[in-house]
Design brief:
This protein is of the alpha/beta class. It has 15 helices and 19 strands. It binds NADP nicotinamide-adenine-dinucleotide phosphate and magnesium ion. The site of magnesium ion (MG) has 7 residues, from β4.
Length: 513
């Protein structure tokens, strides 16, 4: 087995890659608007009700119409997963991992095409779409290797006269509930981690990005995943979500999404149901109000670059987005100026045409973000943006507010859009205090050239993924295992060596010799 290596990003400055991307976007454009069924135990089921996936940057363009599950179909999917668990759990780790490696190879071959789907369906520009596909490939390559490492006997202390063995076995049927913001990477990561550990799943994609999830399902089928191991069940979260979460045969729930939905799932899953013979496990990765601290002696140009790419990459719609800049008062005005200069250069336009700032995901998000911008106008000084942007989609100008108080709503609440709150700190201590003063704890950065401050931050900036002198987005599988503290979730550390254990249970067997 070759050692795990991250999939390289495509360089779109290279005319060859640019040409491939343009070609892929044209090809995928011809495939837009088709119908996609649910897939339960391999069976294609077309439903009367549909979920229509629309290009958020071109509201007249339907990306696809997918089936919409009701509770009867949700139950059917759950029992299909339950039936297939009996055989899938007997596959060797190598056989299960083989499916992931093959799927990764297929994705590599179809990379630009998958990226084009992400441009149309999620409003990702080329580099963002490329990172999403690369991460999906990485998850499968990484978890496949993890399954091999954790398959077979694990180390235990030797006792003469006894044969002691510890192995990891799967849990059972999992419900995977995925977000739309990494609609390929996170969905693929959550799903393949669960199945490579020997579980079977019902996969509920986000309703705003279900077509790319169907493409993933097809790739897994092509890679040899048996029918019933992954059941594709698009449907409204509020309609089928509670049903799946509370079902007595559900063994675990792997969720990535908002705090409110995560809390609801955690609460419902904790309730014992008639006929249920286990405590359900919940892996929940939720929101963030991530921040970048800039120290008095930091390299200010670097800090401004990091702030802008963390806050505005994919329109700020990343759980890791640096939506707060917390800046030492000595350099505050300068940093505001450098940030605003850069933000004004971010042109807004269609993702498939590779504008640096694309649309936000849907009408609900659009309205919510514009409402927050109005709140920001009360709470601080508008430095850039502040309005809708032109176009037949959910376009919003990248927006910067200065003079935001640490307790302000803009400094506390996850907006999940292109809105940056700049906060002034009296000194380094104060900056740390502001950084830690939210209910979340996902990512953070410190820009500083003071070794003492860096070491202080290493222990005292309380978040799952902390970075020094670089942006707070762009975690890489294997290198930066990802997950947050407090209301950011269960700190599952996706893309790390602890992750598969969340979908496994250990069995110890001793034989007296
Ligand atoms: P969301 O609205 O919570 O939706 C996530 C998923 O939950 C969707 O599939 C949704 O289905 C489903 N859902 C909704 N109501 C449900 C219910 N009652 N029971 C079960 N499932 C239900 O989140 P989102 O808007 O897709 O994603 C953005 C959020 O995800 C942000 O808060 C972001 O910070 C967070 N996020 C966190 C991480 C991380 O690693 N910590 C990574 C990415 C995103 P429908 O689409 O049908 O409503
Ligand atoms: Mg859409």
């Amino acid at each position: 087995m070759i050692e795990f290596k991250n999939e390289p990003f495509s360089n779109f400055a290279d005319p060859a890659n640019k040409a491939k991307m343009v070609e892929a976007a044209a090809l995928v454009k011809n495939e837009l608007g088709q119908d996609y069924p649910l897939v339960i135990n391999g069976e294609r089921i077309f439903t009367e009700g549909k979920i229509t996936s629309v290009n958020p940057g071109n509201l007249d363009q339907v990306v696809g119409n997918v089936g919409k599950a009701d509770r009867t179909l949700a139950a059917k999917a759950l029992y299909a997963a339950l039936d297939s668990f009996d055989s899938w759990k007997t596959f060797t780790p190598a056989a299960r991992a083989g499916c992931l490696f093959k799927a990764a190879a297929i994705m590599r071959r179809r990379k630009f095409e998958l990226e084009a789907w992400l441009c149309y369906e999620a409003g990702k520009n080329w580099a963002e779409a490329d990172a999403d596909v690369a991460e999906a490939i990485d998850f499968m390559e990484f978890y496949g290797r993890e399954a091999l490492r954790l398959g077979g006997n694990q180390p235990v202390t030797v006792l003469p006269g006894e044969d002691n063995r510890l192995t990891y076995i799967p849990l059972g049927v999992g419900v995977v509930i995925a977000p739309w913001n990494f609609p390929l990477a996170i969905l693929a990561g959550m799903t393949t981690a669960a199945v490579v550990a020997g579980n079977t799943v019902v996969l509920k994609p986000a309703s705003t990005a279900p077509v790319i999830a169907y493409k993933f399902l097809e790739i897994m089928e092509e890679a040899g995943i048996p029918a019933g191991v992954i059941n594709y069940l698009p449907g409204s979260g509020s309609e089928v979500g509670d049903f799946l979460v509370t079902h007595p045969k559900t063994r675990f729930i792997s969720f990535t999404g908002s705090k409110d939905v995560g809390l609801r799932i955690n609460e419902l899953a904790a309730r014992h149901q008639p006929g249920q013979i286990w405590l359900k496990r919940v892996v929940a990765e939720m929101g963030g109000k991530d921040g970048i601290v800039v120290d008095a002696d930091a390299s200010l140009e670097d800090a401004a670059d990091g702030i802008v790419s963390s806050a505005f990459g994919f329109q700020g719609q990343k759980c890791s987005a640096g939506s707060r800049a917390i800046v030492h008062k000595d350099v505050y005005d300068k940093v505001v100026e450098l940030v605003v200069e850069r933000v004004r250069r971010l042109q807004v336009g269609p993702a498939e045409e590779n504008f640096p700032a694309g649309p936000v995901i849907d009408g609900t998000a659009y309205k919510k973000i514009l409402d927050y911008i109005e709140i920001g106008k009360q709470e601080g000084n508008l430095e850039a943006g502040g309005l809708k942007a032109e176009g037949n989609g959910y376009y919003i100008q990248p927006t910067v507010f200065s003079g935001i108080a640490p307790e302000a709503r803009l400094a506390q609440e996850e907006i999940f859009g292109p809105v940056l709150a700049m906060i002034k700190a009296e000194n380094f201590e104060h900056a740390l205090e502001i950084f830690n003063n939210t209910e979340y704890g996902l990512t953070g950065s410190l820009y500083s050239n003071n070794r003492g401050h860096i070491e202080r931050a290493r222990s005292d900036m309380h978040c799952g993924n902390l970075y020094f002198n670089r942006k707070c987005t762009g975690a890489l599988v294997g290198i930066h295992p990802f997950g947050g503290f407090n209301m950011s979730g269960t700190d599952s550390k996706a893309g790390g060596r602890d992750y598969l254990l969340l979908f496994s249970q250990a069995k110890a067997v001793s034989e007296k010799l």
